[in-house]
Amino acid sequence: MTAFSRLVARDLRLALRQGGDAATVIAFFVLTVILFPFGVGPEPEILRRIAPGVLWVTALLAALLSLERIFHVDYEDGSLEALALMPLPLEAQVLAKCLAHWLLTGLPLTIIAPLLALFLHLEREAYPVLVLGMLLGTPSLTLIGAIGAALTLGARRGGVLLSLLVLPLYIPVLIFGAAACEAAVAGLTPRPHLLLLAALLVLAVPLTPFAAAAAVRQALE
Question: Can you give the pTM of this predicted structure?
Fold first, then answer.
């Protein structure tokens, strides 16, 4: 656990020192959501109806912006090879990097989402569901994205290839997250959709580190 926490702290320090990735993700999320009322019109009923989908699609696309850098920086400067020689298993290192990535991107998106929902006139009943759904869904986005980031290490135009690999896998998270908010707005229980999001996360936590670690090993050979 000491090595795990040190690796998380290292990635957080490096990311905060550069400062660009987290700010870019948040700025993209904020600006894109704010632009929707200008594009579809200011009518509250229209915005209220599309709010769950807009928030989740925008959060999904924002998360894509920084996925490539989960491993890319360490791969470019050779640090990834040194990390692979650590006593800490590579799978645990992948999980540590995913945790650091989520703390820098997924958690801020979750915090900002209710504030941006005000611009879209989201129903009051859906706010707790939106936050809980984001807390369950955004870690899955990071974990799934880590597989794509590992598979595209060293590839030309890796960002484009990463998007093509990851976006189809993001669809279940998008569907259940938006459906939970829509159920709350309609006066129905969002519990089934939230449980499905939780199930996706429970599956992703133990499985995706092994897949991503195998791809990293392949890239280092």
Answer: 0.90
b/e sequence 41-59, b meaning 16+ C-beta within 10 Å: eeeeeebbbbbbbbbbbbb
Question: What are the pLDDT digits (tens) for 90-107?
Answer: 888 899 899 999 998 999
* C-alpha–C-alpha distance, residues 35 and 193, integer Å: 28
**What CA–CA distance (Å, rounded) separates 121 from 51?**
7
For residues 202 and 123, give the distance between their C-alpha atoms in angstroms, rounded to a whole number: 29
Q: Are 5 and 88 in contact, with CB atoms under 8 Å apart?
A: no
In percent, the amount of the chain with pLDDT more than 90 equals 42
The phi, psi pair for 170, rounded to 5°, reads -80, -15
Distance CA 127, CA 125 (A): 6
Give the residue-averaged pLDDT of 127-154.
91
**In whole angstroms, what is the distance from residue 207 CA to residue 96 CA?**
14
